[in-house]
Specification:
With 254 residues, the chain is an all-alpha fold. Helix content is 82%, strand content 0%.
Length: 254
């Protein structure tokens, strides 16, 4: 392993723990895998780390879909997908020109802004809006979160917090949140693979490391499935918001 990837046994151990956390985040606290993103970028070159992490995320997505597939809200998914596609294309172009520092700073700032907007909107939610205004607001929100989610997931596999904030702001309960998120990321992350291959982020060497790490996703997913039944809705929402803020700060301060 060291000869192929230039990583130490301690580095591989850190990646294995990050893979466990990916599984946990997919079945319990979505957005928590921003910590995994930071670990992968610390052990591996930042650009290459996104290509190694993507197949690991897809493994977690498959496990999450198997666990929560019946709870997805498909109208929400269809509303998001067009805007997400635009964000993925913008992210692909951005990756071709931006350095690692610009990528981290941009995503960190976006995550913190989205967290602040979500908290503000939830506090203002009790004020009734006219039906026409509410419909227009919902469309704008889906479009803006969708583009940001597509952009952040393409450039740094960091779309989880953005989708989490959107689903929280839309009032999703735990199972609906997890089921919708599971299908969303299985579809979006799978669609990102050709772009990542085209950018040289996924190749035979990265897939060998993925094969060694994929098994660690399973125990994380099982722990997450066990834990989510013991977390009430309010704590669940607080953990998602906290993970988003921490992820944003991590990216800004690195």
């Amino acid at each position: 392993m060291h000869e192929i990837f230039g990583i130490t046994p301690w580095g591989f151990a850190a990646l294995a723990v990050a893979a466990v956390l990916v599984g946990f985040s997919k079945t319990a606290v979505s957005g928590a895998n921003t910590v995994s993103l930071a670990v992968f970028a610390a052990v591996l070159p930042a650009r290459e780390s996104t290509g190694v992490l993507l197949p690991i995320l897809i493994c977690g997505d498959v496990l999450a879909v198997l666990t929560y597939r019946r709870h997805a809200h498909w109208p929400t998914l269809w509303r998001l997908f067009p805007a997400v596609a635009v964000g993925v294309v913008i992210g692909t172009v951005f990756l071709g020109f931006a350095g690692d520092g610009a990528v981290r700073t941009s995503i960190g700032a976006i995550l913190l802004l989205m967290a602040a907007v979500t908290v503000w909107r939830r506090r203002a939610a009790e004020r009734p809006e006219p039906e026409e205004t509410a419909t227009r607001t919902a469309r704008i929100k889906a479009g803006s979160y969708g583009v940001l989610g597509g952009f952040t997931t393409m450039v740094a596999n960091a779309g989880g917090p953005v989708l989490s904030l959107y689903l929280l702001s839309a009032g999703f309960r735990k199972l609906g949140f997890l089921g919708t998120s599971a299908w969303f990321f299985l579809i979006v992350n799978s669609a990102k693979v050709p772009f990542s291959v085209g950018l040289g982020l996924i190749d035979g060497k990265s897939l060998l490391l993925d094969a060694a790490l994929a098994a660690f996703v399973v125990p994380g997913a099982l722990i997450g499935k066990w834990a989510v039944n013991r977390i009430n809705q309010r704590l669940f929402e607080q953990l998602v918001l906290a993970a988003t803020v921490l992820g944003g700060l991590q990216l800004l301060l690195r």
